[in-house]
Amino acid sequence: MAILKMNENTPLEFGLYSLGDHLLNPHNGEKVSYEQRIQELIEASQLAEQAGIDVFGVGESHQEHFTTQAHTVVLGAIAQATNKIKISSSSSIISAADPVRIFEDFATLDLISHGRAEIVAGRASRTGLFDLFGLDLNNYDELYEEKLNLLLELNKTDKITWSGKFRPDLNNMKIFPRPIDDEIPIWRAVGGPVASAIKAGRQGIPMMITTLGGPAMTFKDSIDEYRLTAKEHGFDTSAQSLPVSTASLFYTAETTQLALKEYYPHLNVGMSFIRGTGYPKQQFANAPDYRDALMVGSPQQIIEKILYQHELYNHQRFMAQIDFGGVPFDKIMKNIELIGNEIIPGVKKHLNK
Amino acid sequence: MNVVLLSGSTVGSKTSTAMKYLNEAITNQDDTLNIQLFDLKNLELSFSDGRNYLDYSGDTLELTTALMQADIIFIGFPIFQASIPGTLKNVFDLLPVNAFRDKVVGVIATAGSAKHYLIAETQLKPILSYMKAHVMQTYVFIEERDFSNGTIVNDDIIFRINELATSTLRISKLYNQLLEEENDQYDF
Fold this sequence. Notes:
The complex is a heterodimer of chains A (353) and B (188). In chain A, 42% of the residues lie in helices and 16% in strands. Chain A has 353 residues and is α/β, with parallel strands linked by helices. In chain A, the strands form 2 sheets. An 8-stranded parallel barrel of chain A has the order 1-2-3-5-8-9-10-12, surrounded by 8 helices. Chain A has a two-stranded antiparallel ribbon with strand order 6-7. In chain A, helix 2 (71-81) runs parallel beside helix 3. Chain B is 42% helix and 20% strand. Chain B is α/β, with parallel strands linked by helices and 188 residues long. In chain B, strands 1, 2, 3, 4, 5 and 6 form a 6-stranded parallel beta sheet that branches.
């Protein structure tokens, strides 16, 4: 999207994202083909655009139970299938890739989409790709920091001279093509620990933080520290310059009871597949409480949660993962419909007061 | 019901011997249990490097998966330098946080000296509690002199091992009944 430009018509952008997970639907034990899964993602992006959703993100994982390793290819198809929606990674695992190549890919995506591309730079919460690409997990942090810094440099300068540990030197090199406006928004993906948020603040780049579950309040520390650190390092922490995005698991249905009932098997079985531990019912039972971060409930319930979180975080974007654990496409369509018809207008009405 | 017995040492024989007695005690009480016995002596484990346990392979994946799927775990260990063996700590480090949630854990400690009696209490139990295990309060502590030629020669120890098996199975059964009742009350 060329230079980072947040939607001026709302204090809180609404986005969807997918990890491209490829899991069976626990309600019927069926698993769609790779082809269908990817086609449905592209279709979901079109529906999201029609519903007035601001952003659509696709991530990469490089191991069993995932389809969108070539997430930039999928994003290219989405760019072509849509007109207005911002196109983002969610996230790009830059530790395992060459930042030059990432920049080339996203610059191209930016041109295909007429300035709608964004990068969310992640460190990998799943580590399958370390084995696949022959990387040493002991360099987990170092790889990420070095490559993110190079990516940020590439975004800033036309001609680059750089040397580091994990990639050959660059000597007065130019990267082609350049994105529209010569630069691309780059967000830092941040997980649980506050240290990671502080690093994003030190770098002075936008932050996307996962708020997967538990009390919403626990994530406030990271967000406050992020802004404080950015300010201490002389960056402009205004909403336009350093926006904060949250990212949550999400499921809505007409009633909270129905949402809980439909979604629990997806979450529980999905988590067992990718993490090896299910989701305890006792913990899930907290979802209807507005103070719990897990975004599961009726549209009204979700609105209440988003507004409460906005009070806590004052964030500028909320990203919803609506397809985790084999949620079938008819339910994904239903989620998008409820988001577009009820949740986005409801949130806007309250925040624009 | 899945039961895992983990003999937590790569050297010596006392812990392995005690776990064999325990295995027999459990089997005698309930032959419908799915019991797996792992002895660190016979396994080639990776050092934990922070990845999810599912991303390991070989023995490491086999052991961690068995532990994650267990309802009941028995851990036997000798005392090294006033604590648990590093190889056993590595097993814990391979697992995710909350790995022992909803699991009941029984403990057997073997030692060269009675002075080590509280090591299980001060060194092992805090780790198990942190990992959310329901730890059996009473553990079996076995000294060098209770063994001879790969057998346990102190009758009191044999009774204690049997009692550990009985009480752990009982608590696990009770716990699972309560958990099931609680889960049934949810509408999802």
